[in-house]
Amino acid sequence: MDTQSAVRRAATALLLAAQVAVSPVASAATVQGLYSVTVPRDPAATDRRAAAEQAAMASLLIRVTGSRTAALDPAVQPLLAAPREYVMSSGELQGGSYRVEFRRAPLESALTALGQRVWGPERPLTLLWVAVDDGAGGRALLGADESTEPGVGAMPTVTAMLDAVREDLVAAAEERGLPIALPLLDLEDRNAVEFLDVWGGFEDRILAASARYRADAVLIGSVRPGLFGNEVEWLFVNGIERSRLQPGAVRDGLDAAADRYAADLGTIGGASLTSLTVHNVWSSADYSRVMSYLERQSVLERVDVESLGNGTLTLRVAARGDALVLGRVLALGGVLRPAAFGVPGGLAFEVVGNGSAP
What we know:
Layout: H1 3-17, E1 29-30, E2 36-39, H2 48-65, H3 77-81, E3 87-92, E4 98-102, H4 104-113, E5 122-123, E6 126-133, E7 139-141, H5 156-176, E8 180-181, H6 187-192, H7 195-199, H8 203-210, E9 217-226, E10 229-238, E11 241-244, H9 252-265, E12 271-279, H10 284-295, E13 300-309, E14 312-320, H11 323-330, E15 336-338, E16 346-351
Parallel strand pairs: 6-8, 6-9, 12-16
Antiparallel strand pairs: 1-5, 2-4, 3-4, 6-7, 9-10, 10-11, 12-14, 13-14, 15-16
Helix pairs in contact: 1-5
């Protein structure tokens, strides 16, 4: 298999696993397969399955705690010492790698008992605008379909850089359990954004063009050859936050994004009760939509309805972590948004897309 095809297939597999379509209707994702890890076989191990399960646990801890150094934490060493207690299934794949599927509930309970952060599968979607300059006249934008900027030939050097950047981004996103999307670079994108907009980090035009993708955050990167491989300058745009990273590796942008998301959305400790009010619930369809959405949230352990009337649904929920984290998680899915007026001692949302009473 040629490198280009391998990279394309890897990217497609990641996007499908995360249930993220690189299209104008993308949105925050519930990552499927978060607890399924594939690791290379260790030919030196006497018990290859045990070695694979331990390596898979180390990788999983990075995804689920949101910490790049999770496996080095003394507190989680019991999990690394006995990963099989949390394994649902494991087996060798064609080609020699191992796939290990872990049981989510007992592992999250163990992390909570150890005082570790748990970052659930509901995760922000990050849209990446990446400009590549090979230093020899080749320039291109990285697109969902490996497209290049109009008028710029697909020179071998810039094509190779695009492949390498795509592969690095896919690997980093898979390691961190991070849903990502790339722009289509269709006529609409090309009319809105040029290579120099991305290269110069002109965020106003980029953010305007990004609206169609409904991403939660945007990473803008300019890639050039460096002494030790490709070097990138990243700008991370997350709501009103702007973070410009020092020039570094391709994966640095996604690592910075994952670190921030985990800090904002990860929970520590057991469940606590919170009052939750949802406005604009005017029909049985609205009610079903809200309840179905809440029941899918991993951070919620219990949802009890207290009242429903005059378009307002009042609930009492048991959620891991504090109310601030719960509010951030619930705002991710495109179903609820924070209400203009709050509720003392609780959270207030309204159903997205609903207006006044019928």
